[in-house]
Write a sequence for this structure.
């Protein structure tokens, strides 16, 4: 790993009050329950986050995104929210949040909060009121309640399916049914109801006033549904999934990516822009690129996650096509592109990138990660190369906690410890997402490798000790030091939001220039290749006699 100092004369100040700080920022996702446990109860908490913020500052990220920390029974890992304007007592208090946000800002870190507007928890005061109020009441109108079909209303109102399996409708004792696109503990809100819209405006102001710099919007494409009577059947269970959007004219699916949802975000933007600097937002919208760009328009959320990049295979042609399309879509929207390799919902990329392209990840997880077996060394090498490629691209990069340690997926969790509702709701057909949510290792010993004073809420494998921060801190060539060096260098090199492809690159090699200052070369082929002109600033693996080996990325100064 070679580093050369570089002038900072044109580097943007991402820690300032610049309203565009987010356009090329690096945002670190914290899954609070798995990040750090300050009180020793086995569950991560806000005081644990505060204690470990120096890790993020030393890493060199610009912001942290906190996955939900609200009161919740954890029917879906915190995405079932009891109260949008409070902190889960197991994770701390509002004072703990304020302390955490103040410390983050002192360290030059922005704070992004996760917002879950599609559904509440079934324990939310509104839903309890709805159950008590009965059919036709104003309380029920905040949600999507309908009479059932059949002679006695015993059949669901439609054939819509839950993302987690089974019907998206649940019957209540008085005979009506309510919609839940996710778990039954997550009833969908009715965004045609003005009380719902008003309450979320209050929530946006509540957290913005407490110093939150932006919001990640969960399931941003599903808020508005076509609730005109009679509700439409889809005709096939698979048409309930996001992949079915291609079977509908744009904006016409009954509950995904409807055109009317953009009215909500234009309304939110008016609130964001009352703050200095304006609050930012990023949409989790599992929709095709051209439609995704609509959420990222300047008068809406401003950014949207780029899941095509996450889902792309380790193939030069496919990646180039996705990168080119993503940059074009973002430019058309007036936004910057986003790049992400891992998050709390997918198999970690240090594992995923070496699985054969046709791997059924659900079946692989059920095998405990043994069918097929994974070469961890090869996976880490590929993950490091993928990271340097991602960090070289114009736009914002989102880093998931633990990827800076090279953590692999924990695929062999015993079924009796699983927490993800997917496991039960699919009848044990899908193991779920717990394998990427296993708590972080901070030290090389202890009952939870420094995560807390006792055991963690999900068991950590013994080999986590080798990945711990303590094991990698200051160690030349470690994945942690690679991230630190890359982020420090990236900030100095940033210049503009475009790239120029080198068409003369060898087959299987991605090569592009960022302005006239630096270039990135990623070798996705199986052969060692010559490097183009330029001084090596950083490489994801040692060079081989001055040449770039397979599954390796290098940054070159021009």
């Amino acid at each position: 790993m070679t580093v050369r100092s570089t002038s900072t004369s044109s580097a943007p100040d991402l820690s300032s009050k610049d309203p565009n700080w987010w356009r090329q920022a690096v945002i670190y996702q914290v899954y609070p329950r798995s990040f750090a446990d300050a009180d020793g109860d086995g569950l991560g908490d806000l005081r644990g986050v505060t204690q470990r913020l120096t890790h993020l500052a030393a890493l060199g990220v610009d912001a942290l995104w906190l996955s939900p920390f609200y009161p919740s029974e954890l029917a879906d890992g915190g995405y079932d929210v009891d109260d949008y304007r409070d902190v889960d007592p197991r994770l701390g208090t509002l004072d703990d949040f304020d302390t955490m946000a103040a410390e983050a800002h002192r360290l030059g870190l922005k704070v992004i909060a996760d917002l879950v507007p599609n559904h509440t928890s079934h324990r939310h005061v509104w839903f309890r009121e709805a159950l008590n109020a009965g059919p036709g009441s104003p309380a029920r109108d905040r949600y999507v309640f309908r009479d059932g079909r059949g002679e006695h209303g015993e059949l669901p109102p439609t054939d819509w399916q839950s993302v987690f399996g089974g019907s998206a409708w649940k019957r209540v004792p008085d005979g009506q049914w309510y919609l839940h696109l996710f778990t039954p503990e997550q009833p969908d809100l009715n965004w045609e109801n003005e009380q719902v819209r008003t309450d979320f405006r209050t929530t946006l102001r509540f957290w913005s006033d407490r110093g939150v710099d932006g919001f990640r919007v969960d399931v941003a494409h599903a808020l508005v549904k076509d609730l005109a009577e009679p509700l439409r059947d889809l005709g096939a269970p698979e048409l309930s999934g996001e992949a079915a959007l291609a079977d509908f004219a744009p904006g016409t699916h009954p509950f995904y990516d409807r055109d009317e949802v953009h009215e909500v975000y234009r309304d939110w933007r008016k609130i964001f822009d009352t703050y200095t600097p304006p609050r930012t937002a990023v949409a989790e919208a599992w929709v095709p690129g051209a439609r995704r760009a609509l959420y990222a328009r300047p008068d809406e959320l401003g950014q949207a996650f780029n899941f095509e990049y996450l889902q792309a295979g380790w193939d030069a042609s496919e990646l180039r096509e996705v990168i080119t399309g993503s940059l074009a879509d973002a430019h058309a929207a007036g936004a910057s592109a986003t790049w992400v390799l891992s998050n709390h919902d997918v198999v970690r990329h240090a594992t995923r990138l070496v699985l054969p392209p046709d791997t059924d990840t659900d079946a692989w997880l059920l095998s405990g990660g043994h069918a097929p077996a994974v070469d961890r060394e090869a996976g880490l090498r590929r993950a490091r190369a993928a990271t340097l490629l991602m960090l070289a691209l114009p736009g914002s990069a989102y880093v998931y906690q633990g990827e800076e340690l090279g953590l692999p997926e924990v695929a062999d969790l015993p079924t009796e410890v699983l927490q993800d509702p997917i496991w039960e709701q699919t009848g044990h057909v899908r193991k779920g997402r717990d394998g990427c949510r296993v708590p972080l290792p901070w030290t090389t010993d202890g009952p939870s490798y420094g995560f807390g004073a006792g055991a963690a809420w999900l068991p950590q494998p013994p080999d986590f000790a080798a990945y711990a921060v303590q094991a990698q801190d200051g160690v030349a060539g470690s994945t942690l030091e690679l991230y630190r060096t890359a982020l420090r260098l990236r900030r100095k090199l940033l210049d503009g939001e475009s790239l120029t492809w080198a068409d003369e690159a060898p087959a299987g090699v991605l090569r592009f220039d960022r302005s006239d200052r630096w270039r990135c070369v990623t070798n996705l082929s199986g052969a060692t290749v010559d490097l183009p002109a330029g001084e090596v600033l950083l490489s994801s693996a040692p060079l081989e006699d001055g040449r770039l080996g397979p599954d390796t990325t290098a940054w070159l100064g021009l």
Observations:
- The first helix runs from residue 46 to 51.
- Confidence is low (pLDDT under 50) at residues 1-15.
- The chain has 16 helices and 16 strands.
